[in-house]
């Protein structure tokens, strides 16, 4: 199914039957991605009297209770409610679901202290030649499918410098997606400078903007411009498991 769209005065086509899924599947147990010491996702059948919600255990249907922590179990999308004292929910903040998105790949810079950081200068070099897009997808290097089963807790994973995030805000990025547990350092004393810079909180909250963490972009997906479809469950909390999907764009000459 082909569709066309206009971006920055150019006409593009895309095939909606060729999705590029960049979400990490949610599954129970320890053999999946996890961070911030969150308990792993669990599910169990509902039991009521003689009824059990498991076909394997003799029930007529599978009827499961699921326990998960969106920020710690797999790909998730969060809104400013993640850091705000006021109530913002992902269902209220994310009201549109298709965006032009630029995919870039970057090696975090190792500091003398051992941190791995993405700096403003790196993003300026990668994005300077491209028109601004509403969404930015960051793939960190090196990249392999171990990212789908890594437990990042206590590992001090890479993160973005808050000035790098300020640069993205200046470029008009409203939806930031990355294959890391957080835009901020794992242990930063609660400063959350990157989150605050992105959402401009508390000075002028960008309530319609989102951060999606713990994606995985396969190496077969090339850097470039894509149509992003970002879907979440309609949770009235600050974050939801999510399913970002990319569609390759072909420009009409």
UniProtKB/TrEMBL annotation:
Keywords: Hydrolase
Any one GO BP annotation for this protein: L-tryptophan catabolic process to kynurenine
Pfam families found in the cross-reference section: Cyclase
GO molecular function terms attached to this record: arylformamidase activity
SUPFAM superfamilies in alphabetical order: Putative cyclase (SSF102198)
Protein name: Metal-dependent hydrolase
Organism name: Phaeodactylibacter xiamenensis
């Amino acid at each position: 199914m082909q569709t066309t769209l206009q971006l920055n005065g150019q006409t593009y086509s895309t095939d909606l039957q060729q999705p590029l899924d960049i979400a990490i599947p949610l599954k129970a147990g320890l053999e999946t991605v996890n961070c911030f010491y969150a308990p792993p996702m669990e599910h169990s059948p509902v039991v009521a009297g003689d009824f059990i919600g498991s076909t394997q255990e003799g029930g007529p249907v599978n009827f499961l209770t699921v326990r998960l922590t969106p920020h710690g179990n797999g790909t998730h999308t969060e809104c400013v409610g993640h850091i705000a004292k006021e109530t913002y929910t992902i269902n209220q903040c994310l009201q549109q679901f298709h965006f032009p998105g630029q995919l870039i790949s970057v090696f975090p810079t190792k500091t003398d202290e051992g941190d791995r950081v993405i700096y403003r200068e790196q993003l300026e070099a990668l994005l300077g030649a491209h028109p601004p897009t509403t969404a930015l997808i960051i793939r960190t290097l090196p990249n392999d499918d171990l990212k789908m089963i890594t437990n990042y807790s206590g590992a001090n994973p890479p993160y973005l410098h808050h000035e790098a995030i300020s640069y993205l805000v200046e470029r008009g990025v409203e939806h930031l997606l990355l294959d890391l547990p957080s835009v901020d350092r794992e242990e930063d004393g609660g400063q959350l400078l990157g989150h605050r810079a992105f959402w401009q909180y508390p000075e002028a909250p960008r309530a319609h903007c989102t951060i999606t963490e713990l994606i995985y972009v396969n190496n077969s997906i090339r850097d470039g411009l894509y149509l992003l479809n970002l879907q979440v469950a309609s949770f009235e909390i600050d974050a939801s498991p999510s399913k970002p999907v990319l569609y390759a764009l072909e420009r009409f000459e």
